[in-house]
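Hey,

The postdoc asked me to send both predictions to you directly instead of through the lab channel. I've kept everything plain text so nothing gets mangled by the mail client. Protein one:
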Amino acid sequence: MADHSFADLTLAALYDGIHPWGPDDDFYLDLVRSADAVLDVGCGTGRLLARAADEGHPGRLVGLDPAAAMLVQARRRAAGVQWLLGDLRTHRWQGDFDLVVMTGHAFQVLLGDEELRTALRAIRAALAEGGRFVFETRNPAVRAWETWTPDRGREVTDADGRAVRVWHEVEDEPAGDRVTFTENFDCPAWDHRRTSRTTLRFLAPGPLSAFLSEAGLRVTEQYGDWERGPLTPESAEIITVAGPA
């Protein structure tokens, strides 16, 4: 479960260990390989664009993230990627990219209607004609947050080889389409436990398509899994490909 609120350098260094490379990364990497100019919104530690750069991607790669600690990790990875601190309110483009992605459920941190509209308008403006915006959001019908419980915690190893326990706790029942939870981190060598608090928005396919349409974007493909299977009510993910309307 990705979390884009890792402002702490210690937590940012743990991020890839908590969220190892998986089928979702392979899905997005295939898209990046076939695009000339790519913007990764909420790029986190930068591993997607860094992998593409390491493979010799010949085009423009831009990673954008609001957490300076995450970009510290990204800037250690690869030359040939432009790493930018900020969000879609502080950086604007006009027809610069043939692919814009939001990975790791970053789309779900856009909470308010106007915040979401602003981001989608900026993405539409950044897309070249024929470009694609690709992202995923968890399907609210599956109620994934019900599995975010302390008993499902896990251990990861930090850069010094120390075990860090990580677990989640949902604070309350969902408030409309929003769920607030904490990601907790504890290590015997630390002087205190660290906690990252996040609220995510779970949009159903209908409202999601309506927001995209309002911003001048049209859904061209939608999948329910990373193998491009059909979207069903039981699908854990709503993986969306949209282009200029």
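Protein two:
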Amino acid sequence: MQLIDTHVHLNFDLFQPDLAAVRSRWQEAGVVHLVHSCVEPSEFSSIQAIAHSCPEISYAIGLHPLDAQKWNSQTEQEILSLANSDAKVVAIGEMGLDFYKADNYDSQVRVFEAQLAIACELNLPVIIHCRNAALEVRDILQKWRNLKGDSIRGVMHCWGGKPQEVQWFLDLGFYISFSGTVTFKNAIDIQHSAAMVKSDRLLIETDCPFLAPVPKRGEKRNEPAYVRYVAEQVAKLRGETIEAIAAQTTENACKLFGLTL
């Protein structure tokens, strides 16, 4: 059984002491590929170094909405340069909107759209962070789909919204990725969403080091090996085997990110 963790943050300090051991555990758990996401440009070099030290890691580059104030013309050029020079870059992000922790609407939207333009230029998928902003994200993605068609594609990562909102993004051709939150007892909307997503649009992730799934919830650090627990829960919610979920989500990840196993 093969699993792909489509969203990790291994460059964080929590992983520095024992990354080799963490890697051994994800390999033992059947995780055959990982997509390393990015928060802001100061991470580019450390993420690139990790990806080039582990053949099974690809990565994304971009600017998180909560860091929108760090955007400038140099950021855009750094993204373009690195994406054009390194085949391990498979997506732009994470990007999007977050109105849970910030209310700088205009700034977030401007940076979000600037990165969508880069993704179109490079023909790369996007990794979308969306918190308390589903309607706004939907409207922006719809506008860009109208302008650019299928070149606007990607994943709604660490899905935390309602099933109705899931359908908005499925209608836009996006993938929906579930993290450890799908295992939480009170995450009813997320669980309903996991049950309804079309098979060919389903992905799984850890978003490590955050959001450790049950039965590891409460640990200070989530890690890629735990994506198996996400797969198990999604399988249970959908009335499928974990083997079927592993195969489908692996196929979907390879298609979206252009991965070859």
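Summary for protein two, as requested: The beta strands are 3-8, 31-36, 57-61, 89-98, 126-131, 154-156, 175-178, 202-204.

Thanks,
C.
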